[in-house]
Amino acid sequence: MIGKENKQVEKLKQVLKKQLTNLAALAKVMADEQQLLCAGRIQGALLQKVTGKKSSLLEILAKLDQQRLDEESALGLTVPYPNASPLHIIWQKIQQSIVSLDRINRDNGMLLDRHISHNTRALEILSARHQISLYGPDGQACKLNPMR
User: Fold this and answer.
1) Domain for residue 93, yes or no?
2) Beta carbons of 100 and 27 less than 8 angstroms apart
3) Residue 91's closest CA among 12, 8, 10?
4) 26 burial class (0-12, 13-18, 19+ CB within 10 angstroms)?
5) How many domains does the chain have?
6) Greatest Cα-to-Cα distance within the chain, rounded to the nearest angstrom
7) 148 occurs within a structural domain
8) N or C: which end of the chain has fewer CB within 10 A?
9) What are the pLDDT digits (tens) for 6-45?
10) Within-domain flag for 61
11) Tens digit of each residue's pLDDT (9 = 90 or more) over 86-120
12) Which residues contact 13 (CB under 8 A, 6 or more apart)?
């Protein structure tokens, strides 16, 4: 029975290592996203590509987390695992990565909100300028209030 348990522990360890690897890849993608958001002008195609990579990594991480939960259940273990065990050490690294990613995600969210706000204001200004004179239902030009 101990041999089987060791194999299950090793399998859990491998799942945790995969999580850590994918979290590192996510950190790189989010750093790329931040660089794009910090640029004066967002390159939509590049941002979309980065967003796609981020979504893909998040899907992988969700599957790995379910595998982790399944392995824990089979072993009767729960995080953070016994102190000083290899599982505990990897889990601590995962937790540190998550805290760092949360910080980057909040920063990226604020940057994105600023771009959205700026674009919304620009569209309002452009929209007001272009709606000064429109044709009414009778085919005649009618003046609209530009500050609507």
Assistant:
1) yes
2) yes
3) 12
4) buried
5) 1
6) 88
7) no
8) N
9) 899 999 999 999 999 999 999 999 999 999 999 878 888 9
10) yes
11) 999 999 999 999 999 999 999 999 998 887 887 78
12) 86, 87, 90
